[in-house]
């Protein structure tokens, strides 16, 4: 009887539960969420997320300071100034996934490729997505070395939540193959992403040049580790046709809108993170570095007056004016202070009329960089169609002209460019090292702010420009400029076996002083 009564009691409960479950799955679906991949939308987001992810922590505080473009007197944000706080470098790992509003470009681009790869009419979309995927992964592997690659971004499709770490050597080989195959597959008669492509608006011809320019960059990265392979890919890229005209430069446009995401993330990041108010202290204690400002002044570089200002107070001290006068510009020494310097307000800051404009464009791949790569190729005897001097001159000219894109305050006259080239002419009679130093230093200048990642990689590969390390008490590198980003602790928790295997393969350490495969 007790069992019978118990069943009678449970029966309506079971019915009630079943009734509650009826239709529950449908009720639990977000009516505003898309259940299908929209390739154009995801590709747009992949482009934006790839370039903007972790800008402040990585490009500004870690690389920008260690490459001595910026300096800070504070200790917490001194990842590159005093070689503290490796945690800022962890944030770039979020490209694998994380906050869906700001990360996960790997997942986005993998889903785009999965959605378009089977339809022949989507061949251009597939090619562009594969080239952008190569751009994304080359940034990740250059920062971290061995990373998840062949099995990455497949948690949804393959239920693989612990992807293996591929060697950087194998990743580079595949990236170059992917770029080459994608370029060959383009078909001008087929559809493109159109306006969903923020860089070229679906222009296949320009995407080919971008692809070959990426091939040139990646090929040149191998000069110290595999010269034969480097030469092969550099020659292929040059034969294919790289970016040599400013009209083919890869850029993303931004607007000064009320929506933060529509603003240039560099300007927005620097304004909110450090340069909020003119005069007095800055949030992260940042200023432009002495190394940068001294070099610009000593070489009479007209970019100084485009890049740099000093806030000059009014007579009553209640307001400030941004002054670009050369004599006033003064950079702050890296790792020289641990408290607010008394003359802090006399140090140079980024120019609000150019660098800090919310509607400034992002230069993804510049004509100047391509010319500098071609100059190096000519030096190495891999390019007979020009001279290193001609490419150097073209690079400097383009690097100065590109500031026009930032508005009237960025215009540098032809006369000033000519005067600079006269005073800083290519050393045709110099040694190979002297010529390489000129090329490397111009890359450090021409990619300032826009692509600190590439400056960091080129410095590790070539040693140029020559930078004097800091050795602040208690730093994490023993007074060595950081050479690799640190993979976050979460990988040790969630992908332990693969992480340990990769760490062992890369010298057994996961620190700012570790090195990647091609860094010799």
From TrEMBL:
InterPro entries: SusD-like_2 (IPR041662), TPR-like_helical_dom_sf (IPR011990)
Lipoprotein keyword on record: yes
Keyword check for Lipoprotein: yes
Signal peptide: 1-20
Keywords, sorted A to Z: Lipoprotein, Signal
UniProt-listed Pfam families: SusD-like_2
Record SUPFAM superfamilies: TPR-like
Protein name: SusD/RagB family nutrient-binding outer membrane lipoprotein
């Amino acid at each position: 009887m007790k069992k019978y009564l118990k069943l009678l009691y449970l029966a309506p409960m079971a019915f009630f539960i079943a009734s509650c479950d009826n239709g529950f799955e449908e009720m639990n679906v977000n009516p505003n969420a898309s259940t299908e991949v929209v390739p154009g939308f995801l590709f747009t987001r992949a482009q934006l997320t790839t370039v903007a992810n972790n800008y402040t922590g990585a490009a500004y505080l870690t690389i920008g300071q260690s490459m001595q473009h910026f300096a800070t007197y504070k200790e917490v944000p001194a990842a590159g100034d005093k070689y503290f706080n490796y945690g800022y470098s962890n944030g770039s790992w979020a490209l694998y996934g994380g906050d869906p509003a700001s990360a996960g470009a790997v997942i986005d681009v993998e889903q785009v490729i999965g959605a378009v790869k089977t339809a022949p009419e989507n061949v251009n979309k597939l090619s562009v997505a594969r080239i952008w995927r190569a751009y994304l992964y080359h940034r990740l592997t250059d920062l971290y070395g061995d990373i998840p690659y062949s099995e990455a971004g497949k948690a949804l499709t393959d239920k693989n939540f612990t992807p293996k770490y591929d060697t950087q050597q194998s990743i580079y080989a595949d990236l170059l193959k992917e770029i080459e195959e994608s370029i060959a597959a383009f078909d001008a008669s087929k559809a493109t992403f159109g306006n969903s492509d923020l860089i070229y608006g679906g222009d296949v011809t320009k995407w080919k040049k971008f692809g070959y320019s990426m091939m040139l960059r990646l090929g040149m990265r191998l000069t110290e580790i595999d010269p034969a392979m480097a030469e092969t890919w550099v020659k292929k890229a040059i034969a294919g046709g790289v970016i040599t005209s400013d009209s083919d430069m890869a850029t993303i446009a931004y607007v000064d809108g009320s929506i933060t995401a529509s603003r240039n993330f560099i300007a927005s990041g620097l304004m909110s993170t450090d340069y909020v108010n003119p005069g007095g202290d800055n949030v992260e204690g940042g200023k432009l570095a002495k190394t940068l400002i001294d070099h610009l002044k000593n070489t009479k570089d007209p970019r100084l007056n485009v890049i740099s200002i000093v806030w000059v107070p009014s007579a009553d001290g209640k307001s400030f004016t941004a002054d670009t006068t050369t004599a006033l510009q003064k950079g702050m020494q890296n790792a020289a202070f641990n408290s607010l310097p008394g003359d802090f307000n006399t140090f140079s800051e980024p120019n609000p009329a150019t660098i800090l404009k919310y509607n400034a464009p992002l230069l993804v791949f510049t004509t100047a960089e391509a010319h500098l790569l071609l100059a190096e190729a000519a030096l190495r005897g891999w390019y007979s169609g020009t001279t290193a001097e001609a490419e150097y001159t073209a690079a400097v000219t383009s690097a100065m002209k590109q500031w026009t894109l930032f508005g009237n305050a960025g215009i540098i006259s032809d006369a000033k460019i000519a005067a600079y080239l006269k005073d800083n002419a290519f050393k045709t009679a110099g040694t190979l090292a002297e010529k390489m130093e000129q090329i490397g230093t111009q890359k450090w200048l021409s990619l300032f702010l826009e692509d600190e990642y590439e400056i960091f990689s080129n410095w590790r590969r070539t040693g140029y420009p020559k930078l004097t390390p800091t050795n602040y008490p208690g730093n994490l590198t023993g007074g060595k400029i950081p050479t690799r980003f640190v993979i976050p602790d979460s990988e040790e928790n969630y992908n332990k076996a693969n992480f340990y295997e990769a760490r062992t393969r890369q010298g057994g350490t996961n620190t700012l002083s570790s090195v990647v495969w091609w860094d010799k």
